[in-house]
Please model this.
Amino acid sequence: MEAQLLKDYLASHHIQTVIQGEYLSGAAGELPALQFPVLWVLEDEDLERGKELIGYFFQNDKAAIPWVCPACGEHNEGQFHICWNCAKMK
Ligand SMILES: [Zn+2]
Model:
């Protein structure tokens, strides 16, 4: 469930992933560290940005408002503190 949300989230940022280990969902509770499936990033070059996006995903600030990057004009989600397109600070 959470992995699917993350997969969709990353896909919206042009990072393609596949979900592995869904079979583990039946064992949830037994192995807390493994109760969520693993998300594999298909392109090596997307890995670092993927990690960063996941970090933002889990510290999602509900009160954050969307903003427009002053450097490139890209629209960014409120929880991001740097532009996802050009990496400029808010
Ligand atoms: Zn930008």
